[in-house]
Amino acid sequence: MDAFVALLRGINVGRGNRVPMAGLRSLLEEQGFSHVSTLLNSGNAIFRAPARVGARAEALIGQALTDRMALSVPVIVKSAQQFGLIISGNPNPMVADPSRLLVAFSSGPEALTPLTALESLLTPDESLCITPHAAYLHCTAGIAESKAAAALVGKLGRGVTTRNWGTVMKIAAALSEHSPDVVRR
């Protein structure tokens, strides 16, 4: 059994797309996933599954959300190993304020390609790095002040879901309990 993290886009933000974490855990258990836990209230779930099932987890979870909760949101699933690659690929691992670094997760590299349009919105104190595994947007003046960040969490970033670096590290810590030899900081 391998460890995975599911990242749901746009839930429990504002009034729409409300998903109780107990309901999400139950939904994942009903799909046959084990050792299910959630982290924070923003659609982060960690679970174990056979590798062959993990490859289909995005579709399984997405369909279950639609069927059970009448909710259609993007679901990104990463194995512990893939998550570790995203952590090690961060070009700014020692940021002073982890809330000012957004990591964009996608199902595949093709969903990251449109994010190159963010480059035209960057201010001189911001940086964007797109790798085959994730995109990293560092906003030194803050996420709320950044036009690039607004576009990333808005329509331009429709094919991805974002987490700030602090949340990424909390997920990594939780994942390491499921798969300690794979996830490294």
Short key terms for the protein model shown above:
185 residues, 8 strands, four-stranded antiparallel sheet, alpha+beta, Alpha-Beta Plaits, 2 domains, globular
Structure description:
This protein is an alpha+beta fold and 185 residues long. The protein folds into two domains: 2-81 and 170-178, 2-Layer Sandwich (Alpha-Beta Plaits), CATH 3.30.70.1280; 85-168, Alpha-Beta Plaits, CATH 3.30.70. The protein has six helices and eight strands. It has helices at residues 21-30, 51-54, 57-69, 80-88, 147-153, 165-178, and strands spanning 2-8, 34-39, 44-49, 75-79, 101-106, 126-130, 134-139, 160-164. The strands form two sheets. The protein has a four-stranded antiparallel β-sheet, with helices on both faces. Strands 6-7-5-8 form a four-stranded antiparallel β-sheet. A hairpin with a 4-residue loop joins strand 2 (34-39) and strand 3 (44-49). Helix 4 runs antiparallel to helix 6 (165-178). It is globular and about 50 Å long.
> Approximately how much helix is present in the residues?
25-40%
Strand order of the largest sheet: 2-3-1-4
The gyration radius over C-alpha positions equals: 16 Å
Sheet of most strands: 4 strands, antiparallel
Category from helices, strands and their pairing? alpha+beta
How would you name the CATH homologous superfamily of the largest domain? Answer: SP0830-like domains
Oligomer: single chain
Low-confidence segments: none
Query: Given this structure, which CATH class of the largest domain is correct?
Result: Alpha Beta
How many helices? The count is 6
- Overall morphology: globular
Cα(first) to Cα(last) distance is 22 Å
CATH fold name of the largest domain, please?
Alpha-Beta Plaits
